[in-house]
Amino acid sequence: MNQADKVYLDLCRNILEHGTKKEDRTGTGTISIFGYQLRFNLQEGFPLLTTKRVPFRLVATELLWFLKGDTNVRYLLENNNHIWDEWGFQKWVESEQYDGPDMTNFGLRSQEDEQFNAIYQEQLKMYQERVLTDDDFAKEFGDLGNVYGKQWRSWEGADGKVYDQIQYIINEIKRNPDSRRLLCNAWSASELENQQLPPCHYAFQFYVNEGKLSCMFNMRSNDVFLGLPFNIASYALLTHLIAHECGLEVGELIYSGADVHIYSNHVDQIKTQLEREPRALPTIELNRDVESIFDFEMKDIQLIGYEPHSSIKAPVAV
C-alpha cells in the first residue's frame, strides 16, 4: 500500500471512530477532531490519492493562480477551473446589484431541492459568463478580496511596505538554506473582513537538509474529503516547483491540521473510499527549461502514471 493513501485513510477512520459531532458556519454539520499530522515522503511518489480520482489539473491551475498573486476567479474560469466559483457567486447574490431569484443558503438548498438547483445552476452560469466577458463585473464580483495570492505575493505590512513572501523564500533558500525563516503566512487579522473566505491553509514553512527541500503546511480548518486531497497535492507541487528553481531534490511534506473534519453529507463517500485498495502513486515531471516558478504554465507540468479508482462526487459546503 502506498503511504500517501494509507495515512489519509487512517485519518478518515480516526475521525469516524473518535470524532465529535459539531455544528459549523455552513449549517451542514461535521464530525471533527482537533489536531492531527500527516507525513509524506515525496521521494516515494507524488501524493495524489489513488483511492479516488483527484483532478490534478484543477490542483495545478489553482496553485499557479496563487503564485501569480491573482485573486480574481476570471483566470480560473479561463482555465475551466470552478473550485472557487461559489464564493464569488455568493458575493454577487448578496450584493445590492443582484435582482434575480432568492439565493439565500444556495449551497444547502441546491442539494435538497431539485427545482431550486435548476434555478441556481442557471444563475451560476450567468455569473460565470459575466465574469469572463464583463470587465467591470469581473472586477467587482470576480475578485475574492485579499485571499491567498495577495497574501503570498503582496503582503502589506504595518509599515506600509509590500512584501513578496514567495520570492523572499526562494532568495533565502539560495542564500541561506539553513534559515529558520523560510515561512509564508496568509493569515492577516486586519484583513479578514475583506476576504471572501479567510485562509484555511494559513501558513507554511520550508526546511533544507542534505540537498532536499521539505515543507510543512498548517490548516486551521480542513474539509477532509474534498479539501485535504487537494491541499496535499497542491503543497507537494509547490515543494517540487521551489525545489526545481533552487536546484534541490524534494524531501518530506508534512501536514498539520487543527479542526480536521468530515462533513455530515460526506460520510457515505468516505466509507466508499475506505473500501478501496490503494494503487501505485504517480510521479511529477517539470519542464527543466523553465527557470522561475512564476513562469510555469500548465503545459510545463506533467503527471506521470496516475491510474486511480473512479472519482466520488460530494457537495461543497459554502
TrEMBL record:
Keyword Hydrolase in annotation: no
GO molecular function: thymidylate synthase activity
Residues that hold dUMP according to the record: R25, R180, R181, R220, S221, N222, D223, N231, H261, I262, Y263
EC code(s) of this entry: 2.1.1.45
Gene Ontology biological process terms from the UniProt entry: dTMP biosynthetic process; dTTP biosynthetic process; methylation
Positions bound to (6R)-5,10-methylene-5,6,7,8-tetrahydrofolate: D223, A317
Active site (catalytic residues): C200 (nucleophile)
Keyword Methyltransferase: yes
Pathway: Pyrimidine metabolism; dTTP biosynthesis
InterPro entries xref list: Thymidate_synth/dCMP_Mease, Thymidate_synth/dCMP_Mease_dom, Thymidate_synth/dCMP_Mease_sf, Thymidylate_synthase
Subcellular location: Cytoplasm
Domain Thymidylate synthase/dCMP hydroxymethylase intervals: 7-318
Reactions catalysed according to its record: dUMP + (6R)-5,10-methylene-5,6,7,8-tetrahydrofolate = 7,8-dihydrofolate + dTMP
NCBIfam families: PRK01827.1-2, thym_sym
PANTHER family, per database record: THYMIDYLATE SYNTHASE, THYMIDYLATE SYNTHASE 1
Role of this protein: Catalyzes the reductive methylation of 2'-deoxyuridine-5'-monophosphate (dUMP) to 2'-deoxythymidine-5'-monophosphate (dTMP) while utilizing 5,10-methylenetetrahydrofolate (mTHF) as the methyl donor and reductant in the reaction, yielding dihydrofolate (DHF) as a by-product. This enzymatic reaction provides an intracellular de novo source of dTMP, an essential precursor for DNA biosynthesis.
Similarity-based family: Belongs to the thymidylate synthase family. Bacterial-type ThyA subfamily.
Assembly and binders: Homodimer.
Protein name: Thymidylate synthase
Lineage: Bacteria, Bacillati, Bacillota, Bacilli, Bacillales
